[in-house]
Hints:
Blueprint: H1 24-45, H2 53-68, H3 77-91, E1 95-96, H4 98-115, H5 128-152, E2 161-162, E3 175-181, E4 187-193, H6 199-208
Parallel strand pairs: 1-2
Antiparallel strand pairs: 3-4
Helix pairs in contact: 3-4, 3-5, 4-5
Amino acid sequence: LPGLFAAGECAAGINGANRLGGNSLSDLLVFGKRAGEFAAKFAKENQHGSIEREKIDAVAREALAPFESAGRGGENPYVIQKDLQETMQDLVGIVRNETEMREALEVIDSFKMRAEKTAVTGNREYNPGWHTAIDLKNLLTVSEAITRAALERKESRGAQFRDDYPDKEERFSKVNTIISKKPDGSMQVRLDPLPEMPEYLKQIIEEMK
Length: 209
């Protein structure tokens, strides 16, 4: 998407299948700097994009919907968030297996329906309940993506441990797991071959042996 730049750990996976807690700092510093520089360069070299007012209005209506539901018995967003956290911890946690992860997908689907009926009170200023209601959509998307990716990768590697596939599988060492959304909103999982390692990286690795 032209004009959209990724910063931090969402920009790449330089640490492989696992990382130590402090290692994310390198992602933040390096990709934050690069994203800022290239975003500024892009802004200088390109015109402002056009914005459709109808789409902005639709997004605003969706964001404000929890206030509309306050008097109609809508659900507390904190309760859904807590239930989602417990589901991911219990069914897609440290030790994973296909049965529990498929159960998690069914539960996540039920949370999506509940999230459409969240209700908040108060106003738009300093309202963490409203922020949580808005965040739920993204939390559910990420939770589903994690679960589907873990299901597809039938092996144990790094931070992923599956007790139904306790060993590494060589074919998964040569692919990235890619999650994308179809027009109907459903998720699609594919395995893309890793690009060939650049020669300069091969040389660095050889020198470090």
